[in-house]
Amino acid sequence: MSGKIKHTGVIESVERNVIRVRILQTSACASCKVAGHCGASESKEKTVEVYGDFDGRVGEEVTVVASEQVGVNAVILGFGVPFLILIAALYLLIRFTGNEPLAALGSIACLIPYYLVLYQKREKLRERLSFTIERINN
Q1: With left for phi above 0 and alpha for psi between -120 and 50, is residue 52 left, alpha or beta?
Q2: What are phi and psi of 68, to 5 degrees?
Q3: How far, CA to CA in Å, does 118 sit from each of 61, 105, 107, 115?
Q4: Distances (CA, A) of 21 to 18, 62, 64, 67, 131
Q5: Which residues 6+ apart lie within 8 Å of 42 measured at CB?
Q6: How does DSSP assign the chain, residue by residue?
Q7: Measured between alpha carbons, how far is 82 from 77 in angstroms, rounded to an integer?
Q8: pLDDT value at position 82?
Q9: Burial of residue 65, with CB atoms counted within 10 A of its CB: 0-12 exposed, 13-18 middle, 19 or more buried
Q10: What average pLDDT is seen over the chain?
């Protein structure tokens, strides 16, 4: 494994230190020869914001790169930690209150502080969970 996540895309806009790159995100089976005749294949256009200095121009084809560790960290912060908070809070609230509906609402409410902290730390997270751009050599 290369340890890199790469997507080819086209620069949509260039502002101070933010470059927006449009990529085509495809599912694993979208590259299959019969994907056009199968309902399972899926592809979506996404816009990725890349922070930093890059002297690209609108319309230039580039490769957006991130390490696999960045992807793993994003999944852990976005899904793993909230899941653990939800399950732990649900268990504790059911154990201490015995009221399942109240425990369900309370466990969901326990996610609010987590997401507020993520929002407050977004600049630091943006630095740690960032993409880079590489030129495509034609």
Answers
A1: left
A2: -60, -30
A3: 32, 21, 18, 5
A4: 10, 8, 8, 17, 11
A5: 26, 27, 30
A6: --SEEEEEEEEEEEETTEEEEEEEEE-TTTTSTTGGG-TT--EEEEEEEEES-----TT-EEEEEEEHHHHHHHHIIIIIHHHHHHHHHHHHHHHHH--HHHHHHHHHHTHHHHHHHHHHTHHHHHHHT--EEEE---
A7: 7
A8: 97
A9: middle
A10: 84
61-67 vs 4-15, strand pairing mode: antiparallel
Rounded to two decimals, the pTM is: 0.68
Q: Which two tokens stand for residue 133?
A: 């751009």
- pLDDT at position 90, please? 96
